[in-house]
Structure formats: C-alpha cells, structure tokens
C-alpha cells in the first residue's frame, strides 16, 4: 500500500507493519491522573479517542499486529530515577496516591489503558519506565521476532512519548508514520511543532498523514 503522507508517500506492507498506540492511559486522559496533576487540561487529549478507536478497529479487522504501551513504574519505584520523580509538581508526584491510585504505577486503576482502546487477547502490551517505548523494554525484540519493518503511531503526548518513541524507532531502522488526528498534546503549539520536526528534511524522523488516508487505503 502507498499512503499519501507528508513529506512523500509512505510504503506500507501490512504483514511487516505494526500499529503502535502510545500511552492512551487513564493517567494521561482522565481527570485525577498524572497529566492533570501537572496542571494540564486532559479534555484536549480525549478529543482523539474516536479517530484512534476507528483506526484500531480497522487494523484489528485486517489482522494486523497491535502494540500498546503504558508509561508505568514498579511499585517500589526502582525503575524511576529521582531525576524523573522529582520534576513536575511537588503536589502529586509519580508513586504518590491520587484519585485513581498511585500515579503512573503498574497495576493501579489510573495506569490502565482507557476502556475505549483496551487491549484484546493477542495484542502486545509494553510497560515502559521511560518516555521512549524502546528504552528498558522488550519492544525491539518483539518486533524483530515478527519481522516488522514499519510502525504506524498513534497516542499521547505528541511531543513527549510519541516523538521520543518515533526517534528511538527511527534509529533502530523502522519506517514510522504518525497519524496526525490520532495524537495530541496538552499544548497545541507543541503538537504542530512536533509534526513539523518529524517530517522535516525529507522525513528525518518519519512521515505524518491524516487517519482518513490510511483508512481509505486499507479499505481500497
Ligand atoms: C508524558 C507521555 N507526557 N506519555 N508522557 O509525560 O507523553
């Protein structure tokens, strides 16, 4: 399949491509989680749920590989360096008790993927202690084992975990496409800047395209 993307068409071979959904967790998208404790308006992120769900369902119908990630730390915080924990608002930090359980801690209600995008049997779920999906995780091995060469990205936030993961993927040799209306930031200006950075200089990090273009290509 050729996807009309920016800055030029993206070649997508379905059997060699995984859909990667970054951190669509209650902690970022619902009130009371990590995102809101940092002072952000989480409703901005909620707006991408319908488009993201549409792509996920279409991808599942075609039998494609789906990877979900969660930004997630061990309950003893052994994988959360002070350099990460001590930033942000002192009011409620990673590991503190919030309205949806301990902030960004594995197994807590707030750390789960939102119901609308919940993983189903056979899909891969990667818990990541960093912003990037490859740092200290088994993701590269999971993709190599399945001979995956390209990744289609959705999720939040565009300029933090999505962009970091795309850069890590790019350095490992994957071609990466980001779906523009299936990613969001708490800061609209950061989202548009991240999209520009990714596709600049001849797709230096990757490609971007609206989800409707991908869906049309999949249906065609
Ligand atoms: C952040 C993420 N923004 N998933 N995490 O801390 O982008």
From TrEMBL:
InterPro entries: Isochorismatase-like_dom (IPR000868), Isochorismatase-like_hydrls (IPR050272), Isochorismatase-like_sf (IPR036380). It comes from the Bacteria. Keywords: Hydrolase. One of its GO terms (molecular function) is hydrolase activity. The keyword Cytoplasm does not apply. It holds the Pfam family Isochorismatase. This is Cysteine hydrolase. The lineage of its organism: Bacteria, Pseudomonadati, Pseudomonadota, Betaproteobacteria, Burkholderiales.
